[in-house]
Every structure is written in structure tokens, then in C-alpha cells.
Amino acid sequence: MSGNSSRSPGVGPEEFRRLMARFATGVTVATTRDKSGKPQGMTASAVAAVSLEPPILLVCVDHAADFHAAVSGAPRFALSVLSSNQEHLARRFAEDRPDRFDGVPWQEGAGGLPLLDGAVAHLVCGQWGTHEAGDHTVFFGRLEEGTAFDRLPLIHFRGGYTTTGPA
User: Fold this and answer.
1) Distance CA 2, CA 130 (A)
2) For the chain, which domains are there?
């Protein structure tokens, strides 16, 4: 089967969403700065490691998301891997609102990128390439720096949030 097919036979968008909801994923907030320097961010669970040498990851962004324009023109982006007590941030950054960062504690990482306080990890990436995939763009980032913290992660599963791991 060709990877360029625009539609899978017999599987529509709702069924695809239902099936993929059975795949538990971590939850991140992808961030960058737009051309004016304003922090931009969105909730992203379509994130994956691609390569160890060099260290490359990917994040998928819907063409309709306001974050798409910001990350498309940025030399870098960052990911804050959300912790179990940050569901409110996952929901906030998933909403279509211009003030996502208002009142949210964050710090500047490399290149002035916003990194959310209280996360499980921070990853700062230089843009490494893109690939168009249906209604999304896959952004590849080469990891430039990262920090891990000893916290439980937030997990997205079957359309809701949960956590796992030892207390």
C-alpha cells in the first residue's frame, strides 16, 4: 500500500481517532516564539523519538493550529513534558485562545524558548526538517539540550488524562 494514499479504505476520521485513542501517549506542550518574539505554544501528544545519533525527535502540528505558523518560521522549538498535576495546562494549551501563557509559570530556555515550570522534562530542539503528512506537518527537531525531573508524567488515553508509575 502506498504511503501517499489520501484515504484509508473503510476507515474514516472518527474510527481512526477511536482506534488511536487506545494508544497511551505522554502529553507535552510544544513552544516557540513567533516572529514578533511573543511566546507561542500548543498541547502535543503526537511526539516521538526518531534517531539516537544524532538525537532527533518529531512533533506533529495540524495545519489549522495557530501554532503552525509560529513553528514554521522558527529556528527552534521546545517541548515541556507535562507532569501528572498539569492536566490544566494540557487543556489550556489545547484551547484556541491568544492568552495561553497568561498566569502560567515558565522560564526561558536556550534561544529564549518558553519552558513550563513543573514539567517532567524540557527538550530544546533546533529545526531539522519538515514533512507534510495529510492535514499535519511533521516537524523534526535535533535535540540541543534537555533536562529531566523526578516527577510522574501525565498520560493521555481513551480521550482522557491519567498517570502511571510509582508514587
Assistant:
1) 20
2) 26-157 (2.30.110.10)
* 59: nearest Cα among 151, 149, 145, 124: 124
- The amino acid at 100: R
In what side-by-side order are the strands of the sheet with 25-26? 25-26, 154-157, 160-163
Asked if 115 and 125 touch (Cβ cutoff 8 Å), the reply is no
10-residue mean pLDDT profile of the chain (167 residues): values are: 55 86 90 96 95 97 96 96 97 93 96 97 98 96 97 92 71
Looking at residue 151, what DSSP letter applies?
-
How many angstroms separate the Cα of 47 from the Cα of each of 30, 50, 139?
A: 10, 9, 10
